[in-house]
Task: structure prediction
Amino acid sequence: MIVLRNLVKRYGAVTAVDGLNLEIRSGEVVALLGPNGAGKSTTIDLLLGLARPDEGSATLFGMPPATAIARGKVGALLQSGGLLPDLTVAEIVELTASLHGKARPVPEVLRRAGIADLAKRRIAGLSGGQQQRVRFAMALVADPELIVLDEPTTGLDPEARRAFWSAMHEETAQGRTVLFATHYLDEADAYADRIVFMRAGKVVADGTASQIKGLAAGRTIRATLPGADLAALAALPGVDQAEGRGEAVLLTCHDSAAALRALLAATDARDIEVTGRGLEDAFVALTLEGAAA
Amino acid sequence: MNTTYLRMEVRRLLRNRRVLIFSMLMPAILLLIFGGLNKDQEIGGVSATAYLMVSLGIFGSMSTAIGGGGSIAVERGIGWNRQLRLTPLRPGRYVAIKVMLSLLMTLPPLLIVYVLGAVALDVRLPAGTWALVALGSWLGALPFAALGVVVGYVAKPDSVQQVSGLLYMLLAAFGGLWVPVETMPRLMRDVAELTPAYWVGQVARSPLFHGSLGVHAVLVLLGWTVALALVALSRFRADTARA
Ligand SMILES: Nc1ncnc2c1ncn2[C@@H]1O[C@H](COP(=O)(O)OP(=O)(O)OP(=O)(O)O)[C@@H](O)[C@H]1O
Ligand SMILES: [Mg+2]
Result:
């Protein structure tokens, strides 16, 4: 459905997307995760044909992105902009619907996006979260087979986020394919069948939420150790990283047993705690790995 | 044809009344000044007030048409054009809608100039001449509507007003809309002929002289329209930058 092959996109000295390969099958719900500047939005631009790759290719439904869009198969919510401030909510959704050959009834889509009560309000007067829901309605109105969302819940309050995802659930129940970029790990964990983790323009991890968590299988050791030599700690066997937290130190380890033995032998560390990691730690670990490399 | 889009554009226009008012203000004021100064004069055997009225009507429709397309720069700035690229709207359609909107926008300045001409400056013309003059001036705005689209793609949102302002002033000054071409020195006339503004002037003023539209001028203007429309289309295709 989405096939990205060896995609490269450079902006001057910055290589925003650096040899990216990704294949997404019909019916999958995929989260695109990664730190700021990882290249998520650029990847989305490339796969929607909003930017031309310097190398490689992007195809949707086996067609060039522009062709797939021309056939009304794609709905998308971009990270920013894209609204005409002097139209009302109902007008801009109606306009978007009219530009697509087949479209769902506007009132139904407004209800789905939770903005039925805002129908007659001008876009310019809406709050950021309300505007975000208008973008969502515009992405849905074409009744697309593929929905691409770039940080769809940024600026939404917790209740609105919940409502957004429950609406998305109903949408995907009808067999839609969804790709969404996000910084909210709980969203990726809860709503995606598959998580693609990007860093510095590359895919560095790809799998289910539990597989990604497993990538950060290492553990964190926390201990009280006044006046610790962080460089020496970082050099201990099994330790990837040592950070100071006041009197305490935080050791990120790939082999916590070896690290623990060495720590006890070499120092007077007290109050030792060893914890496993969640998706958040996986995120941090995957992000840091690149910073160290 | 997507009439919904055109309808929405008209609504937006009616909500931005400032744009409409300014489009009428400038040609109206210029007409009252130049027309008042040249009352009872003749240019090439035609009443100077009628001549100036037609020229300033063109000035009004030209500046409005260029400004109309210029609004694309603002829409690009807020990411609307990227949004449009996510819909099946074809480039040709989009440009056509913008051009049609610009043509609609040129009606108020044309109307105010003709009303002021008839009421304040006592311009009297046969009905057929009025109709041809108005038609020539209105359709003569086509190349400028296309030019406006080009400006909308080339200019930055924060400078587009200055760019289009400079452009229509230059076109008006060198194309003979402020100073009658008949009174220009030879060299300036040669320069004038290089501008589309000159040719709209020739088209729209020809009924004053011989009661019909000049075929040669119409053809030159058509050439300008096609050329500028092609440039506009190529700009739409090239435009993918993130706002
Ligand atoms: N138009 C541009 N001109 C120059 N650099 C750009 C442009 N667009 C993106 N970049 C750079 O490319 C890199 C990737 O940016 P991108 O917006 O794709 O990241 P992202 O993963 O979406 O980040 P975020 O989570 O902050 O939205 C960044 O370093 C960014 O500065
Ligand atoms: Mg982004």
User: Anything to note?
Assistant: Chain B has one domain: 3-242. The interface with chain A takes residues 2, 4-5, 8, 11-12, 15-16, 75, 78-80, 82-90, 240, 242-243 of chain B (CB under 8 Å). Residues 3-242 of chain B form one domain.
